[in-house]
Design goal:
272 residues, alpha/beta, Rossmann fold, five-stranded parallel beta sheet, 5 strands, 9% strand
Length: 272
């Protein structure tokens, strides 16, 4: 099962994700990061087992790295072939951005990184294994469409969300814009914003907040498995409420047990 988080910079995704991992492990599940899950899955494959058993110790890490890069490249390509409309929409959306090409390449590469992870893990995770993504497909919408120099186009965001593959569970972490700005200033901005003027950072955060609102509205209307977490106050209060929310509705076990067997309705596509 794949669980991904989304929310503003400074909303507290990492904190809630760490708590969810703890709760899952306490409930008997194997909660993993994407890197941990891929390493585990590769270790179960025949090539991974062969490297572990036969390769000299000094070569193992290097060989495993080569295999990982090969698998990641193939999975990215396979995802692109299986989702041409989504991939074209992502690529097309970057053509009009008023940012350097190297920055666009980073944004596109991060999307394909998530795509490759999704494709591989969907096919190789076993029962009881849960991958927690702090930044998955849904959160990529902020990187793709929060443009400091341009207004947000909600239609592009909704179109992107409508083309995504089915998601097992999305945890939406909410906090007011002023709280997110304060926390981001205290904990550190994303690397791409650290050398920017405050006015540029403010524009990005405002646009990211618009995308966050559009995303929540879309997910509420079209996705069955969604949790909203209010993290506008004290962290401990948020964690306590999150635990109660999960425990009262017995959400963890139900979602994990049913994710592999119960198909979810696909959301309708949204026109351009």
């Amino acid at each position: 099962m794949l669980i991904e988080f989304t929310g503003m910079v400074g909303s507290g995704k990492s904190t809630i994700a760490a708590e969810l991992k703890r709760l899952l492990r306490a409930d008997g599940f194997t909660a993993l990061s994407p890197a941990e899950a891929i390493e585990r899955c590769l270790g179960r494959a025949w090539l991974g087992r062969a490297i572990a058993r036969l390769a000299p110790v000094g070569w193992r890490e290097r060989l495993q790295g080569h295999v990982l890069r090969m698998v990641e490249g193939w999975q990215r390509l396979a995802f692109a072939i299986s989702r041409p409309q989504l991939v074209w929409h992502v690529l097309q959306s970057q053509l009009d951005r008023k940012i350097p090409w190297w920055h666009r390449r980073i944004i596109i590469d991060r999307f394909f990184e998530v795509a490759g992870q999704y494709r591989y893990l969907r096919d190789h995770l076993q029962d009881g294994e849960v991958v927690v993504l702090e930044e998955g497909f849904v959160h990529r919408a902020t990187n793709l469409y929060a443009w400091e120099s341009q207004a947000v186009d909600p239609k592009m965001v909704r179109r992107y969300l409508s083309l995504l593959p089915e998601l097992d569970l999305v945890v939406f972490v909410r906090a007011p814009l002023d709280v997110c700005l304060e926390r981001a200033g205290m904990r550190g901005l994303p690397q791409r914003l650290r050398d920017k003027e405050q006015a540029t950072v403010d524009r990005f955060m405002v646009n990211a907040n618009i995308i966050s609102r559009v995303t929540f509205e879309f997910l509420t209307a079209h996705r069955r498995h969604l949790i909203e977490v209010d993290n506008s106050g004290e962290r401990q209060d948020c964690l306590t409420n999150f635990r109660h929310h999960l425990e009262d509705k017995r959400l963890i076990g139900r979602w994990v047990d049913s994710a592999w067997n119960v198909p979810s309705a696909q959301p309708p596509e949204v026109g351009n």
